[in-house]
């Protein structure tokens, strides 16, 4: 005779074995305790009756976030709104289709990707290192101008590794056969710095000026890729592989490697997951620097999937784990990334909603307006010195000479915000002329596009500064 099913108010989370032995269960199926005791096949939860219905849960209970619930709610509302359509529905609430929208950006990159790229480095004989003096100079410049863009290095650590590399490898033969993982990061860093070569503006500038910087950029980029393959990065997972690819994120498109960008970026995400860089429980046992670097690189790879603590600057991390506290009014490079986090989450949520259910004209207009308002709100909440309308003056408390990257960040944030507003509002491009409601989206697109052109042509921003964007 089968055991009677007891009645309960809630389904049990612990497995039967752990409940009977009165030991802690981690509530997974199979749980860690049953794995340790070799009872994985019998690790189940008790069958119970709740409100007359028999419940038997044989797997882990999923964790549902507020964002998940909001997305599901929007999906169901879109389905209901679409199902309610009928011939008598007013013209401004007709079914709205996204299928005929033209994605000009996708078309442009698709055409550019068709061009064949010539690889300049296929063996160690073709690897070229910069002189040590230039390498040290680029390292110093990179810590100021590019590290806050890719955000994949802890510079004090990388500078010490750089010093040891040049001290230990006195000959070219020693250098080309050094650790390929580290060399992949090194040449990724060099190529990223060379993308913004206008910043090599000291006495060593002649070293750059007398060289074809485009050829050098291509050479160092190809060298970084060469050492990734030399490290057998697809089989031997290493954190530095993910670092190198994250840094190359600002280089790929500047050397015309659009397809390689997509392929390696996807690989980096999977390698990072294999290394459990997205698991806070795993990161908790690492050193403060290792933990923060893992967070940074993971955020760089999947900026729209943020669920980890806010990142920190290099000088906020110390080996003892004590984090220095500074007022929010103090300029920090990380504020740029905090804006990108919020903007990416908003846009990712918007794109996700577009893919589910069926939309009516009124519901899609509501979504577009809500998303546009959310983008405007995060721009409003920026520190004053990162708002585009900010004008430094003698009375300002912030000395911009002390923080030369502020104006660059300000321009980048303005460009990103304008670009996202265009991307959101252009969804309505097929119905712009139908009524005043849709013309608002058209005006936003035209005004934002005009502002982008004006910002690029008339603001005095050096062309090199626009390459990351």
Automatic annotation (TrEMBL):
CDD domains on file: fungal_TF_MHR (cd12148), GAL4 (cd00067)
Domain Zn(2)-C6 fungal-type, chain residue ranges per copy: 14-45
Lineage: Eukaryota, Fungi, Dikarya, Ascomycota, Pezizomycotina
One GO location term (cellular component): nucleus
Coiled-coil annotated residue ranges, if any: none
SMART domains noted in UniProt: GAL4
Keywords, sorted A to Z: Metal-binding, Nucleus
Name of the protein: Zn(2)-C6 fungal-type domain-containing protein
A Pfam family per the record: Zn_clus
Gene Ontology MF annotations: DNA-binding transcription factor activity, RNA polymerase II-specific; zinc ion binding
Subcellular location: Nucleus
Keyword Nucleus: yes
């Amino acid at each position: 005779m089968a055991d009677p099913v007891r009645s309960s108010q809630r389904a049990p989370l612990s497995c039967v074995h752990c409940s009977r032995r009165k030991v802690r269960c981690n509530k997974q199926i199979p749980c860690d305790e049953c794995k340790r005791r070799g009872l994985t096949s019998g690790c189940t939860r008790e069958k119970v009756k709740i409100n007359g219905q028999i419940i038997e849960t044989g797997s882990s209970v999923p964790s549902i976030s507020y964002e998940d619930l909001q997305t599901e709610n929007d999906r169901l509302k879109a389905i209901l709104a679409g199902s309610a359509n009928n011939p008598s529905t007013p013209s401004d609430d007709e079914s709205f289709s996204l299928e005929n929208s033209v994605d000009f950006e996708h078309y442009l990159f698709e055409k550019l990707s068709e061009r064949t790229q010539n690889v300049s480095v296929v063996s160690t004989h073709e690897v070229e290192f910069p002189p040590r003096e230039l390498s040290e100079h680029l390292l110093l410049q990179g810590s100021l101008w590019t590290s806050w863009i890719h955000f994949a290095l802890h510079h004090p650590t990388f500078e010490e590794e750089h010093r040891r590399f040049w001290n230990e490898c006195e000959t070219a033969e020693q250098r080309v056969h050094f650790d390929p993982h580290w060399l992949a990061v090194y040449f990724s860093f060099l190529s990223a710095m060379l993308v913004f070569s206008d910043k090599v503006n000291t006495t060593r500038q002649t070293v750059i000026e007398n060289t074809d910087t485009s050829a050098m950029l291509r050479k160092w980029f190809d060298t970084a890729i060469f050492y990734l393959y030399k490290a057998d990065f697809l089989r031997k997972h290493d954190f530095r592989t993910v670092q190198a690819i994250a840094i190359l994120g600002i280089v790929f498109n500047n050397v015309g490697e659009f397809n390689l960008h997509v392929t390696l970026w996807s690989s980096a995400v999977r390698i990072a997951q294999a290394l459990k860089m997205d698991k806070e429980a795993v990161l908790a046992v690492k050193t403060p620097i290792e933990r923060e670097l893992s967070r940074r690189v993971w955020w760089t790879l999947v900026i729209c999937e943020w669920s980890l603590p806010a990142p920190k600057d290099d000088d906020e991390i110390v080996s003892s784990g004590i984090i220095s506290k500074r007022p929010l009014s103090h300029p920090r490079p990380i504020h740029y990334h905090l804006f990108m986090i919020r903007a990416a989450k908003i846009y990712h949520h918007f794109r996700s909603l577009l893919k589910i259910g069926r939309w009516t004209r009124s519901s899609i207009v509501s979504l577009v307006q809500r998303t546009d308002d959310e983008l405007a709100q995060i721009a409003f909440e920026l520190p004053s010195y990162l708002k585009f309308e900010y004008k430094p003056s003698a009375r300002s408390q912030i000395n911009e000479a002390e923080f030369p990257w502020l104006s660059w960040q300000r321009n980048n944030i303005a460009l990103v915000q304008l670009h996202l507003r265009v991307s959101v509002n252009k969804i309505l491009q097929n119905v712009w002329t139908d009524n005043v409601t849709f013309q608002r989206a058209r005006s936003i697109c035209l005004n934002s596009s005009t502002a982008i052109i004006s910002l690029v042509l008339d603001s005095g921003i050096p062309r090199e500064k626009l390459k990351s964007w």
